[in-house]
Amino acid sequence: MTIDILRAAPGDEAALSYIGAKTFSDKFAHLYKPEDLALFLETSHAVDAYKSHLANPEMGIWKAVDQDGRIVGYAVAGPCGLPVEDMPDGAMEIARLYVDESAQGQGLGRKLMDEMLAWLDRDGRPPLYLSVYKYNDGAQRFYHRYGFEYLKEYRYRVGNHFDPEYLYIRR
User: Fold this and answer.
1) Which of 78, 116, 148, 150 is most exposed, with minimal Cβ within 10 Å?
2) pTM of the predicted model over 0.70
């Protein structure tokens, strides 16, 4: 299967909304009440949310596109919005990195991460953070390989539910 990694652009909002909601739900829906999941998806993965991200020059979104033109993975980075004490100037965040179940095992997470880091580090290495679900061991191992380390635990809101989440920093 041939998959290209491209920068997302205006016009990709609906496809990003779909793949964002699908990949989040595939991985985590079992953790939430349906109303909490729906509320989260209606805000965090709304078409308008992606439209806003794509219009923001400080944000970057990458998409993994298969030979049929379907987005099967994506990554989002931009200014840090995580609960970091004494936030350094210019701090950035890896906000999302997901690959659809149908395309896993092909190195797409790594390819998306490499593209995203090249963009983030284009003018030097900014302070870089990310958030990962406390019990997502595979994602934690992935981020450790890129030099990320545990900083603290906090609570991440999904609807009216709060997940235990780890805040990581790149060293």
Assistant:
1) 150
2) yes
Cβ(91)–Cβ(32) under 8 Å?
no
Mean per-residue pLDDT over the chain, rounded: 96
Q: Which residue has the tokens 């079992």?
A: 30
Burial 123-142 (b: 16+ CB within 10 A, else e): eeebebbbbbbeebeebbeb
The CATH H-level (homologous superfamily) assignment of domain 3-127 is Gcn5-related N-acetyltransferase (GNAT) (3.40.630.30)
Angle at 148 between CA 85 and CA 155, to 5 degrees: 45
State the Cα–Cα distance between residues 92 and 77, nearest whole angstrom.
Answer: 7
Burial class of residue 151, CB neighbours in 10 A (0-12, 13-18, 19+): middle
pLDDT tens string 40-55: 999 999 999 999 999 9
Residue 77 in contact with residue 119, Cβ under 8 Å? yes
- CA dihedral defined by 162, 148, 83, 110, rounded to 10 degrees? -70
